[in-house]
Design brief:
This protein has helices spanning 37-49, 52-58, 61-66, 69-82, and strands at residues 86-97, 100-109, 117-123, 129-136. The protein has four helices and four strands; from the N terminus they run H-H-H-H-E-E-E-E.
Length: 139
């Protein structure tokens, strides 16, 4: 299943996702520098926990137009069934590109064996979520 979520350069394919709260995540100070790993960790935790209101309030205007809170909840529930819990964080980093901060996390999930799954959040200069996807890593 694919769904357009953001600007053309930030189109996100929404596929099989991890679904349970990750032990590795921790609450973030969202006033922190967006190059901090804490932003991506917090958004990921909110997604796993089904905190659609918290995420939706951080979406930029384009994201709010492209994905309703109800759709986000349905998607999160689908992930819980298909992928299962995040079991291991393999890597995570933040890179700045073209004025956006891109959080990239590679993980294993319970129902995907050794398949690596990518969690990706794009944060804009206003510290809003401008893009988001979670999908199996492409070779």
């Amino acid at each position: 299943m694919q769904q357009r979520l953001t600007r053309p350069l930030l189109v996100a394919a929404l596929l099989a996702l991890p679904a349970a709260a990750a032990a590795q995540t921790q609450s973030a100070d969202l006033t922190a520098d967006p190059t901090s790993l804490l932003w991506g960790r917090q958004f990921t935790e909110w997604f796993y926990d089904g905190q659609a209101d918290s995420l939706f309030s951080r979406f930029d205007d384009e994201m709010q137009k492209g994905l309703s809170k109800e759709d986000l909840i349905k998607f999160r529930d689908q992930v819980a069934v298909q992928a299962g819990a995040e079991t291991e964080v393999l890597s995570e980093e933040v890179k700045e590109k073209d004025g956006f901060f891109n959080y990239h996390r590679e993980i294993h999930v319970a129902n995907a064996g050794e398949t690596v799954v990518v969690v990706y959040w794009t944060i804009d200069k206003d510290k809003k979520i401008a893009g988001f996807f979670i999908k199996p890593k492409q070779s």
